Amino acid sequence: IHALVTAPIDKSNLSKVDFQFAGHTEYFAQKGGKDSLMLMVHEGLRVALATGHVGVSQISTVLTKENIVKKAMLLKESLIKDFSISKPKIAILSLNPHAGDHGKFGNEEAEVIKPAIEFLQEKGMLAMGPFAADGFFASGNFKNYDGILAMYHDQALIPFKTLAAQHHL
């Protein structure tokens, strides 16, 4: 298979027919027996998710250093293989407002995200961050990276859909 096109699905209807997956990504990952990466692409904008279809109240419990490293590595592999970028530069977003503001808004940046970035850098990846998502997208800084790893669904999809709809990245 070289490509697969899916249509939007109504997740509430799927639960009525015993579809035990949060969405397409999780279904295909299980069927394929491989790790998956949700990646949205529009022209030069490529945004991936560290966590998939997870409720906001659960994000910090499923967000681990290992998860971030695994998703960043999958993003790097895709950027090399699918987009012919030999040494991709990847931005990693923070979880909390203002990148946690030195623990004022949470410790995930210091305890989980920064250690993951440091590990990736030690492995030779051009991974940078954590960047506060609002300023990162609003400033246009996203244009300086080949790929972006967001921590959760809406953190990625709201700016992605807004920017992609403008058609002038």
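The record above closes out task 2.4. Task 2.5 opens with a second protein, given below.
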Amino acid sequence: RPEAFSYLLFALIWLRLSTYNGSKHSFSSLLIIPLLQLIWVNLHIFFIFGLFLTASYFAAALIRRYEHREIKNLGIILLLSTIISMASPNGFSAFLEPFNIFREYAYTIAENQSLFFMQGRFPQILHYYWFEGLLLAAAISWIPVFIHRQQKYCIAGLFIFIAFSLLGIVMVRMIAF
């Protein structure tokens, strides 16, 4: 399925952002992100998550007031990625499609239903309950990160964790993320 490309590109962009350390050499390694974004926008509608990842790291840099160069570099990568996300045969309308896709469905699709809907409809399927348990365990695991400030970009990680946790609850197709 095309979603497999989204998982791969999501992981590659997240890996690149999580290893960024603000140096000049490190900035050149970020330049792969707009290229990955160009590939992604032409493969699958989840390309918007690449922009979300980059925006999360940029927002974290702003909130934590990192060095000016770091903020500028992440801002440049976010801007380039956003512009390049419009480089598809459908241009700007393709860029907006992730926000409009659910308006015209003629019937209900199971994977677009909420976690709680699916639990009520299929109580015998245990992986929905496993997701809830793992979500709770992951939420608890954030406590030491914030107590000890172990991770430079923990705010970005928190944004990503909250967003995809909520997406997984709202739409079971997002549980994989």
